[in-house]
Design goal:
The protein has 357 residues and is of the alpha+beta class. Among the domains are: 121 residues, no CATH class; 76 residues, Nucleic acid-binding proteins (OB fold (Dihydrolipoamide Acetyltransferase, E2P), Beta Barrel). The protein contains eleven helices and 13 strands. It starts with a strand and ends with a strand. The relative contact order is 0.14.
Length: 357
Amino acid sequence: MMNKIGEINFKKIKRISPSQFYSMKNCAYKSLLAEAFDKKPLLPLSPYAYFGTVLHKMLEFIAKGVIKSEDDFNAEFDNQVKTVEDDLQKNGFGFFVPLKVRIRNFGLKKIQLKKHLRSESDQPISFSNTKFHSEKWFESQDKLIGGKVDLVIENENNIEIIDFKTGAITQDCLDDEGESYSEVKNEFKEQLKIYAYLYFENTNKFPTSLSLVDSAKQKFSVEFSEQECKSIFEEAKSLLKSINHCINTKLFSANPQEGNCKHCLYRPACTFFNKTLETNFSFNDVLGEIKEVKKFQNGNVSVILQNGNKVLTIKNFDSKEFDDLNNNKNKQIRIYNIRRDATEFVYSATDTTMIYE
């Protein structure tokens, strides 16, 4: 089915969250598009994103003490998976169900997550002076920055802010001598430092430690200084103001490159990205005029697009797409979330492929 964008009504972004900051810094236009479309994606998410909500919810329940035993864990895990799968079916993404088939190492991820259950030996001798705050909301005094901290642990001498991550926390880097080492991703470091300053604004105290914990219960510490936290906090506020100023001036800009665009769910509405598709064939998206539509005996449909002097073939559309595509010959369309074949300029449609005029 052909999808249309229509007129985009940009709206001011009221508040920036610590988890948004890094993405907004790399491409502010993405955030403006998300706000314009009320944060309703124009493309399907990856099944791993949906499964990530299950993992994060489970970590929240474990941190709050709602889930205490393995039986509790198994029952709630199944319940959370079913809830997500029901929503997927309801929203037309039934091809992602069951998640255990679509997620690589589904069972292993569940086993790793179970490690977060506290055994009696894990418990401190006394909780009398320790407070746990799960999913605690903090916002700046001017309400321009706000977000939920996964877990805050407070006692007489220490305050630890913990953020749970269900994906990779580190990335491989090279030092000055060309040696490889792992380092926590910058986006997570900056996120935690903003949380640290939010905590300070609300309590007049700085945390003593910042940590990231992955699904396998590995903990990664993030070093910080009070000045660093304040600097990034102020940078986030300035960024929000400059982004909103673009709406008044109508002077928009974007940064169309693979790191920013590959997983952007609003790229069908991005004129900057779609302009890039005219000459850049490295993405799993294409643009061109429909020159021919072929239907084969097995029911599969292929569409031939003309993009400048390049002829692009996209195979494996369902037969129900034939009439819509055939009725739009010589019209320029954009096709997103396709898979490149071994042959140059030949692609295949996938479960998440979407077509936009």
